Amino acid sequence: MRNVALVLHFCIPAFLHSCIDALCVMEPILIKHVREPNSFTLDFYVRHEGYAALKKALTQTPDSIVELVKASGLRGRGGAGFPTGMKWQFVDKKIEPRYIACNADESEPGTFKDHLLMERNPHLLIEGCAIGCYAIGAKVAYIYIRGEFFHVQRVLEAAIEEAYKAGFLGKNILGSGFDCDVYVHRGAGAYEAGEETALLESLEGKRAQPRNKPPFPAVVGLYGKPTAVNNVETLCNVPLIVARGAEWYAALGPEKNGGPKLYCVSGHVRRPGVYEASMNITLRELIDGHAGGVREGRTLKAVIPGGSSVPILMPDQLDTQASFDAIQKAGSLLGSAAIVVLDDTTCMVWLAQNLLHFYRHESCGKCTPCREGTDWLYKILRKIERGEGQMRDLDLLSSISTNIGGKTLCAFGDAAVTPVLTTLKHFRKEYEAHIKEGRCTLSAPWRAARAVEAHA
Amino acid sequence: MAYDATFHKSSRHLEDEGPAFAYTAENRARFDEIVKRYPPERRRSAVLPALYLVQAQQGYVTANGIRHVADVLGITRADVEDVVSYYTMFYTRPVGKFVLSVCRTLSCALNGAERVTEAICDHLKIAPGQTDPSGTFTLIEVECLGACDRAPVIMVNDAWQESQSPEDVRRLLDDLRARGEQALTGCHHVVETREP
After folding, report:
1. B16 with B73, same domain?
2. Which of A237, A345, B18, B153 is 20–30 Å from A395 (CA)?
3. How far apart are CA A286 and CA A192, in angstroms?
4. pLDDT mean across residues, chain A
5. What is the pLDDT of residues B30-54, one digit of tens each?
């Protein structure tokens, strides 16, 4: 991990140093050791105070752990940013059994933080799962991992086996009388399985299609029982809170945006990667500082700050703080903190087409507006991108989008139309140029020389 | 699953009957182990791992494989077919020895995934969705694999190969033919070596 302080000194005016040192120069916590050999072993983890938080938690009451997490202000790292403590409090304590379902389906385009956590620091997640189970009174946690992460699953399963042998999982953990099992459940290629109720359906052995809400999973979840569905990074934050306290945790970031945060920076940058920082950091510090900025001779065109499902931010918005609240105020969402950087070689019509290809393929097919609408949007975008579009297609794109958004069971519909609406809003001229010129006027060096068409 | 312009979630297609199918003793033992993770009355939860075992045993999922899974789980064949037709990682047609899944989504595309696909197509003289005549390689384009910092990424069966260029991938194909899976470098390889 690069020296955070150095990067900040490099890119921030001197008069800001003192307050920044106090605010956001943060030693990495979650991914501090990921580059060290054997960081994924129990031995290594225990040597670095691993499982101390679980020991501490087991001496307290479950309710006090829920209160602690509430006080820390921990917000879900999967995309919605919902307070985790609240989610746990909503879990119906009158019904047995209860479950934790850890969402390790990480499929939002641009997101790869959970991948790193699970591959290089799996015991942190296992400890988080065990503490979570203790807090809500569950005896089983299922980690739902996407099918493509098979190599990660093997690391995770080996770590779970180690934890069982050492007595951190299984029956009567550390003599406390608390039982907890953690299992890995492998998905099989479905973006929609990352939606919490679709994840539960998939875990029950069905198609990953969302359920109607309410009832929420906290009341009627896995097998109809109360279930907390939490993202990997969220659960990884729990041991930190238990070990070091809610106040310490909250003070790491701005108000209501506490704790360490993992940012995934990818696209047209020199040093793509996972960077850990407090949410005081700005998009500029992440992109130009950590990730080294756009490549030689290129200029920044736009930034997607939270995965493909969120609106684009323009270069003049780079000084926005990369927190849930500040990004929302700037007109977008932090989502899964997947920052995709686009330079001036990016055709925005192509971008919308690329993402709609994704959404069209990943739509689960349950709700008609989404299933049919994404297909329709993709076909129109492809037509325009090839230079065969007409001006009236632009109104059609808007009209189809507004007939999908808000009219589906889950947030997929809104997510799918966002790339269309946001590119139309900021880059309408590019759409018009495609139609007037009858071709894409931007030749990107990273595209294929000819269209590679799939064979039926 | 053909993954092309004609693909749609509502598409119907019927699986090959295939030869008679039952788990080998080893796979049956693995299945019995896996099914214990779920409550006894919720055996259906094991449908994905059960199907992975079918695919591992015979290379792809056939109608007879589906019947067997339905039998061992105590659910209907339609229940299993419903699942097979939904998830993209189950092959319902024979595939090559190495399935090359090229990520085509945004971050990989921005870093040249199209050129990687093009290079594979030209090198093997096939189109996405096809298997080369020797039965060694099947090429498919897939959506975001979650390794956007090491773009473009491709999967070779269950293993990952990262930060690929057209030259890299041409060399990889020849290497895979010659040395099999030893040719693969694995996950986070490039990041590990790139960092000071």
Report:
1. yes
2. A345
3. 29
4. 92
5. 999 999 999 999 999 999 999 999 9
Residues of B whose CB is below 8 A from A142: 37
Domain boundary (B94, B116, B140) is at B94
The answer, for B48 touching chain A at a CB cutoff of 8 Å, is yes
Q: How confident is the model at residue A8 (pLDDT cuts 50, 70, 90)?
A: very low
pLDDT at position B15 is 76
Domains of chain A: 31-251 (3.40.50.11540), 260-343 (3.10.20.600), 348-437 (1.20.1440.230)
pTM of this structure? 0.92
The closest CB to that of B127, out of A181, A371, A455, belongs to: A455
The percent of residues above 90 in pLDDT, for chain A, comes to 89
The per-type count for chain B, helices as H runs and strands as E runs, is 8, 4
pLDDT at B100 over 90: yes
Number of A to B CB contacts under 8 A, please give it: 203
- Contact list in A for residue B40 (CB cut-off 8 A) is none
* Gap between the Cα atoms of A95 and A227, Å rounded: 10
Per-residue confidence (pLDDT) for residue A449, from 0 to 100: 79
Asked if pLDDT for residue B4 goes beyond 90, the answer is no
Find residues 72-111 of chain B whose CB sits inside 8 Å of chain A.
Answer: 73, 75, 79, 82-83, 86-90, 104-107, 109-111
Are B112 and B163 members of one domain?
A: yes
Q: Could you give the CA distance from residue A437 to residue A435 in angstroms, rounded to a whole number?
A: 6
Count the domains in chain B: 2
User: Which pLDDT tens digit goes with each residue over A171-195?
Assistant: 999 999 999 999 999 999 999 999 9
Question: How high is the pLDDT of residue A454?
Answer: 59
Minimal CA–CA distance to A352: which of A313, A316, A322, A309?
Answer: A309
Q: Residues A413, A367: contact at Cβ < 8 Å?
A: yes
ipTM: 0.91
A211-250 residues touching B, CB cutoff 8 A: 223
What residues are paired with A83 via a beta bridge?
A: A75
CATH number, position B62? 1.10.10.1590
Q: In B, which residues are within 8 Å of A306 by CB distance?
A: none
> pLDDT confidence of A1, banded at 50, 70, 90?
very low
Place of tokens 């940058």: A269
In b/e form, how buried is each residue of A87-104, taking b as 16+ CB within 10 angstroms? bbbebbeeeeebbbbbbb
Chain B interface includes A455 (CB < 8 A): yes
